[in-house]
Amino acid sequence: MADQHRGTCFCGAVEVSASGEPIDMGYCHCGSCRAYSGAPFVAFTIWPEDRVEVTGHVGSYDKAGTSERVFCSRCGGHLLLRHPHLGLTDIRAGILPSVTFTPRSHLNYAARVMPVRDGLPKFSDMPVEIGGSGELIVE
Length: 139
What we know:
The chain has one helix and ten strands. By secondary structure, it is mostly beta strands. A seven-stranded mixed sheet has the order 6-7-8-9-4-3-10. A three-stranded antiparallel sheet has the order 1-2-5, with no helix packed on it.
């Protein structure tokens, strides 16, 4: 049986669970992630959408028609982003405490507001596999 990871929103009213292991982990520096989180960048874990379940009362917002941001309708805690055009769900790294966060890259690094020198690959936008240019920025 696959590993089951569980976490909750800030108030505990919404539970998020994911089975197995994430297929990718990293950081996003895009303006939307920065504005939504109020942070210079966010940490993400990527899962196939069929391995993620959400229970409880959630709200959502889809600014551009490509990524649905899901939050607790009670406390407003950020939970995940659904990317239906990719069949993927981005669960914020802090939501599932049993997942060891091991970032592999930075996305949208051209939009950064804070440089990060950690030796990880830094994509100008996104990898080719998910619709980006695949261009890397040298640290």
